[in-house]
Design goal:
The protein starts with a helix and ends with a helix. The chain is built from 3 helices and 8 strands. Helix 1 crosses helix 3. Strand 4 and strand 5 form a beta hairpin. The longest helix is centred in the C-terminal third of the chain and has 69 residues. The protein is of the alpha+beta class and about 210 residues long. It is elongated and about 105 Å long. The strands form 2 sheets. Strands 1-8-3-6 form a 4-stranded antiparallel β-sheet, with no helix packed on it.
């Protein structure tokens, strides 16, 4: 049991450290990335189109439209024809937030490489400013990080427990509905069978076969 809990904590800690990736996007295509963020959690993101020309300027074709939206479709960031950008906000609601990248159509098609770094929760906090403002030692900053991480894991465990209770309640309601539907189907079948028997009996009596 403790092994399972420890495994869950390790998984959640990895999720809270954020998501950094590099991917390719062809012109005229779209790529969306989702991140499950809790309500009132801080989230920050940074994206950059990699310049294929080491010594030259970025090609005009390497432009994007970037939109970050909430689970309800509210827009938190919109970059139009950009090659880089950042966003930061506090999630007003929990759920899957999405960042979508649209690449302009070009003929012939071009393929661009994008660096994307998305962090939320403890990982989104600017610890360098915390250390600078508080004039604290590195060890104290690490302890503050650890404390915040443990706090978030503790909250996440309660969140998972609430989700589990909701799923159990949903299963109970579904089972109840299925049992009711099964009983109704059985009564309907018995009623139809009784009606058929009555009809056949009436028919045979009319024909004086009974």
């Amino acid at each position: 049991m403790w092994g399972i809990k420890l495994g869950l904590c390790v998984i959640m800690l990895g999720l809270m450290l954020g998501e950094s990736m590099r991917f390719e996007l062809e012109s005229g295509k779209t790529k969306c990335i989702a991140e499950d963020i809790k309500a009132n959690a801080m989230t920050v993101g940074k994206y950059t189109v990699i310049n294929p020309n080491e010594d030259g300027p970025l090609p005009i074709s390497h432009k994007l439209v970037v939109r970050v939206s909430s689970p309800k479709g509210n827009s938190h960031h919109l970059g139009d024809q950009v090659d880089s950008g950042t966003f930061a906000f506090t999630a007003a609601e929990g759920g899957d937030y999405t960042t979508c990248f649209w690449a302009n159509r070009h003929n012939p098609p071009v393929r661009m490489t994008i660096d994307f770094d998305w962090k939320s929760g403890v990982a989104a906090k600017d610890w360098s400013n915390v250390a600078k403002k508080g004039q604290v030692e590195t060890m104290e900053v690490e302890l503050k990080k650890l404390y915040d991480t443990v706090t978030v894991i503790h909250e996440e465990m309660f969140y998972l427990r609430e989700r589990e209770e909701e799923m159990q309640q949903l299963n109970k309601e579904t089972n109840t509905k299925m049992a009711t539907l099964g009983l109704f189907s059985l009564l309907l079948c018995l009623s139809v069978a009784g009606l058929q028997i009555w009809h056949l009996k009436t028919f045979f009596e009319r024909k004086k076969l009974l």
